Amino acid sequence: MSSAVRRTWRRLVQTYHQLCARDDAAAHGFTVPTGVWSCVRCHQAHLELATLHHHLRTEHW
């Protein structure tokens, strides 16, 4: 797989997690508090979206 395809796929997955994860959790009966973000890979909690973005950039990319 080329790097452009991998990069595009990674961005699509990240977009899904940012935009749809709360709705998906609610559809499956999970309650996600407003203002708490969790990393999908290591389950580290973040109180701000900006800190989650920073965590993803520094730890998982």
Folded structure, characterized:
The chain is 59% helix and 7% strand. The chain contains two helices and two strands; from the N terminus they run αββα. The chain has two domains: 1-30; 32-60. The model has no long low-confidence stretch (mean pLDDT 82). The chain has a two-stranded antiparallel ribbon with strand order 1-2. The longest helix has 25 residues, at 3-27. With 61 residues, the protein is mainly α. Strand 1 (37-38) and strand 2 form a beta hairpin. It is globular and about 40 Å long.
Question: How much strand content do the residues show?
Answer: 5-15%
Overall shape: it is globular
Summed up, the domain count is 2
Low-confidence runs (pLDDT<50, min 5 residues)? none
Mean pLDDT: 82
Number of helices: 2
- Using the CA coordinates, give the radius of gyration: 13 Å
**Total DSSP E strands:** 2
Structural class: mainly alpha
Order of helices and strands: HEEH
Give the secondary structure arrangement, pairings included:
Elements: H1 3-27, E1 37-38, E2 45-46, H2 49-59
Antiparallel strand pairs: 1-2
